[in-house]
Amino acid sequence: MTTLLHGTDTLTRDALTVLQPGFVGTTAPDWLLRRIGEGLSSVGLFGRNIVSPEQLTALTAQLRAERDDVLVAIDEEGGDVTRLEVKQGSSFPGNYALGSVDDVELTRAVARELGRRLAACGVDLNWAPSADVNSNAENPVIGVRSFGPDPDLVARHTVAYVDGLQGVGVAACTKHFPGHGDTNVDSHDALPRIDVDLATLHARELVPFRAAVAAGTKAVMSAHILLSALDPHRPATLSPQILTGLLRQELGFEGLIVTDGMEMQAVAATYGIERGSVLAIAAGADAICVGGGLCDEDTVLQLRDALVNAVRTGELPEERLADAAARVRALATWTQAHRARGAESVSGAAVQEGTAPGADIGLVAARRALKVTRGPGSYTPVDSAPFVASFTPVANFAVGDETPWGIAAELERLLPGTETGSYADSSVDALLAAAGERRIVAVVRDLHRHVWMTEALDALVAARPDTVVVEMGLNEAEPRGALHIATHGAARVCGRAAAEAVVGTGA
Fold first, then answer.
1. Cβ(442)–Cβ(470) below 8 Å
2. N or C: which end of the chain has fewer CB within 10 A?
3. Pairwise CA distance, residues 65 & 1, whole Å
């Protein structure tokens, strides 16, 4: 175990405490363990850090051998955004699927089982759920990560999700405050701007966050978006009016405020990560998330030193940094206590109903989320190996391109010999030639957002009217094909549920 450095002063420890960095590898590097010993209180995990539950459990144990109260955070939304199953696809449908079912007990059960699996691996802070109201169907980064476009629906499912996670000792981090749903720009790439009046913000964006705060969410993540009605100059992450005035004072939130990734271009391109981090803490944030892209020791040291220097020059009040660090430690204490209680429950063989290992609640939810629309003629289920044509858009950064999606693998399991091809333009000649006489299953994602995809699908259905169409993104376009299946998300279980419907054994 690393010995604490006697020369490390309180200010430096506080600066390390408010950082939530990432790293490369499936074991903790020496530099990370050393910084934990010096005061670093949180670590963020991404898909690159995880290959199996057993490996993840060993990794979190390695981190806690340095200090038992270190917070281990992860971006595990389920659905399209998964880190636990980054190479396989998630065992849980995402928010859009759950919102389409609109059964809060189902949402609570899914979040509880997801939280149980996180807790079993030693993860105790989940940067989820997304409480964004997806009021703009052209949104390139939220989409199926939202429960839907209705504020009240989003609010009740956000509360259920928070309850499910925190009921098994995993702190929820409700995001992206004050709401990323009405944007047509991805904040990973540039600064989105929302120009609506205060009345609209309060009636729409803020409804789920008010509900989450009232439900006791332990953390809230800020968004790198400019809301001109609240602060015309700085994005929410850097805005005292939004983080302190709105979230702390008006909504009464007393938990941990976490920033979205500081290396995202919405902040980094204008302010840089060092200046941005200082401004964020000064504005009221308590924890700086960094590591999705910048994940080395130099980044940690640069941010630590930037915060220390800002206090010494008077730009950042020392009491503000101390308050932020105290909130991080308070959450660590809460999670540590829950881990201890969880260990006692396991040793006493106390397992709550519906949370046993292997619970199939994710597939149950995915099946319930399907919307199946038959075309004008009679539909004949696919009973021999088909050709799966996947129309593949560019994945957004949050989802990433590592995680497989679609239904080809699930159809191959049901109909051995299934073949597949991937297409990214409007021509279907090569597709038709590859398919030959096989039935075609066309898989699309956010059809309404891609003109080329719409043109290709229309041409395909005109040439082959018996085509089955599976929409795995937002279900905004008119149904097409002999059978249209909307999965409301691209999780692995959504693909399995759709494959069952294609062959006639499911919905």
1. yes
2. N
3. 7
Dump pLDDT digits (tens) for 290-328: 988 889 999 999 999 999 999 999 999 999 999 999 999
Query: Please, are residues 73 and 43 in contact by the beta-carbon 8 Å criterion?
Result: yes
46 to 49, 51, 489: CA distances (angstroms): 6, 11, 21
Q: Specify whether 448 is catalytic.
A: no
In angstroms, the CA 331 to CA 335 distance is 6
Six token digits for residue 480: 């097409």
**214 Cβ contact list (under 8 Å, min separation 6):** 159
Residue 25, token pair as written in the block: 């590898």
pLDDT band at residue 254 under the 50/70/90 scheme: very high
State yes or no: is 260 an active-site residue: yes
Give the strand pairing for 371-374 and 483-486: antiparallel
Cβ-contact 110, 154 below 8 angstroms: no
Residues 146-200: tens digit of each pLDDT: 999 999 999 999 999 999 999 999 999 999 999 988 776 666 666 788 888 999 9
Helix axes 30-38, 53-66, angle to 10 degrees: 40
Largest CA distance in the chain: 78
Catalytic option among 157, 176, 188, 450: 188
How far, in Å, CA of 213 to CA of 217, rounded? 6
217 vs 162: CA distance, rounded Å: 6
Beta carbons of 88 and 498 less than 8 angstroms apart: no
Nearest to 25 by CA among 1, 40, 52, 46: 46
| Active-site residue identified among 80, 124, 163, 260 | 260
Closest Cα to residue 304, out of 29, 18, 7? Answer: 18
Compute the chain's Rg from CA coordinates.
23
